[in-house]
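Work Package 4 report. The design task specified in the project plan requires that, given a folded chain encoded as structure tokens, an amino acid be chosen for each position. We show below one input record used in the internal validation round.
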């Protein structure tokens, strides 16, 4: 089939929180930015997943994310050489239907009507070639005017996923099975899930969709007019900010929060609308829990999934991750053990859907472990807390090549910087200094200062803070290349 004039827009939704993968996934660094299935993060794998669409023209992706993660998205995209056409910023999370509607509206406003291939940024797909075969079939159906869902071949009676009931087979010349969409089924209990597997004709809802922009907007206006109205208004009044596309705050806040499934697909299926399902059999998981990651990961002879400095003795069917120190288990079965620099979680593998309760507890206690790791990422690089005590704090700071911290001062703390690797350009008051390895400088309380890395390699430093208050909010910014307040 030839589709030479059709443009494909990958639309990557990167706004999820991933609370069930705590302590690796956290509010400021959720699972889509983690390398859980290889050397690249889930976001990076998603950005580069669509490789072979035949004669269809694939454009640079549109990424939808929240304000807090915008620099993480930009940096991870840069690392894999897949720069987005735009990074669309949501003022607040409103679920998948408003995000997709905003992307579709942007396309139509530009005078285009591409096929949108909407992919969540936090899914893991093992068989990339098979995904591309399925995608070609889905895109061909979308070109014909259908809204297409990806239905995953179930491997067991999973209660954590919604199910799709398929109808009659549709003809497809693009190498994958395609069916009419019959109905949606909510997340079932175990007996119901098993009955679906026994009956056949049911697939897991993979959360991936393809449709023409105009087709989606027409269905959104019909089935969820408030979402269509407010998401379109937020897009029409958006502000371009370099590589970022900032949706208008008030209109987007008024937009109802709803998923694509509930807002459009369920009523469309019930009405017998023009929808289809392509069958996806690619080693898929939404990595919605530690147990789902265990399901699709390579295991040792005893069924253990291990990463890091791990010793497992007489243990089986467990997942053990170690990031910063040796973790050893003896006589364990069906456990999840995850160690990070500041937290350790141990859970029964059958209870990993309940990890969110830990995050809820951390939130009620106002614990920082809900939001951040010990290493905190910034648009210029990162810092890691090494030690702290009364009136002092020690950090390891890394600054990317070409990056710079803001011109700033602190009212309550002084800082002493020691260069470990690379070269630092330091502004202190009216003076500028060039510091190399093993050289240091002192920044008094109240002194304007800036740290830059104008060199070609990563700048690594140790920062010693001292003073009466050492909080991150003790910053008065005068200039900032990243437009932070």
């Amino acid at each position: 089939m030839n589709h030479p004039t059709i443009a494909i827009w990958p639309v990557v939704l990167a706004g999820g929180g991933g609370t069930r993968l705590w302590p690796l996934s956290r509010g400021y660094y959720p699972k889509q930015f983690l390398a859980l299935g290889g050397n690249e993060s889930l976001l990076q794998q998603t950005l580069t997943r669509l490789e072979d669409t035949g004669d269809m023209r694939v454009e640079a992706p549109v990424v939808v994310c929240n304000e807090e993660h915008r620099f993480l998205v930009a940096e991870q995209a840069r690392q894999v050489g897949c720069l987005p056409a735009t990074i669309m910023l949501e003022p607040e999370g409103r679920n998948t239907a408003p995000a997709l509607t905003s992307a579709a509206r942007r396309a139509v406003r530009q005078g285009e009507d591409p096929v949108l291939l909407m992919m969540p940024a936090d899914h893991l797909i093992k068989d990339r070639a098979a995904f591309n075969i399925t995608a070609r079939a889905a895109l061909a159906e979308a070109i014909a005017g259908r809204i297409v869902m990806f239905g995953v071949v179930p491997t067991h009676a999973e209660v954590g996923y919604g199910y799709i009931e398929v109808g009659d087979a549709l003809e497809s010349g693009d190498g994958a099975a395609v069916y009419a969409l019959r109905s949606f089924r909510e997340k079932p209990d175990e007996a119901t899930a098993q009955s679906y597997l026994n009956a056949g004709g049911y697939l897991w809802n993979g959360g991936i969709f393809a449709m023409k922009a105009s087709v989606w907007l027409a269905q959104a206006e019909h089935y969820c007019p408030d979402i269509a109205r407010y998401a379109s208004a937020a897009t029409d009044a958006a502000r371009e900010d370099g590589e970022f596309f900032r949706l208008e705050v008030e209109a987007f806040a008024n937009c109802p929060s709803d998923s694509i499934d509930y807002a459009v697909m369920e009523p469309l299926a019930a009405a017998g609308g023009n929808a289809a399902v392509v069958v996806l059999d690619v080693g898929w998981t939404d990595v919605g829990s530690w147990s789902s990651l265990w399901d699709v990961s390579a295991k040792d002879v005893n069924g253990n999934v291990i990463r890091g400095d791990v010793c497992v003795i007489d243990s089986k069917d467990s997942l053990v991750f170690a990031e910063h120190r040796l973790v050893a288990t003896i006589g364990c079965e069906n456990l999840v053990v995850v160690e990070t620099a500041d937290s350790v979680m141990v859970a029964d593998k059958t209870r990993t859907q309940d990890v969110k309760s830990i995050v809820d507890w951390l939130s009620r206690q106002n614990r920082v472990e809900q939001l951040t790791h010990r290493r905190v990422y910034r648009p210029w690089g990162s810092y890691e807390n090494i030690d702290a005590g009364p009136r002092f704090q020690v950090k390891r700071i890394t600054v990317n090549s070409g990056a710079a911290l803001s011109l700033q001062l602190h009212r309550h703390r002084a800082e002493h910087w020691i260069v470990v690797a690379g070269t630092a350009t330091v502004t202190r008051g009216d003076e500028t200094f060039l510091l190399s390895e093993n050289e240091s400088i002192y920044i008094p309380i109240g002194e304007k200062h800036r740290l830059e890395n104008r060199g070609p390699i990563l700048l690594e430093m140790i920062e010693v803070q001292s003073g009466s208050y050492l909080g991150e909010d003790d910053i008065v910014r005068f200039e900032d290349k990243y437009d932070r307040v």
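The chain has a mean pLDDT of 93. Validation will be extended to a larger panel in the next phase.
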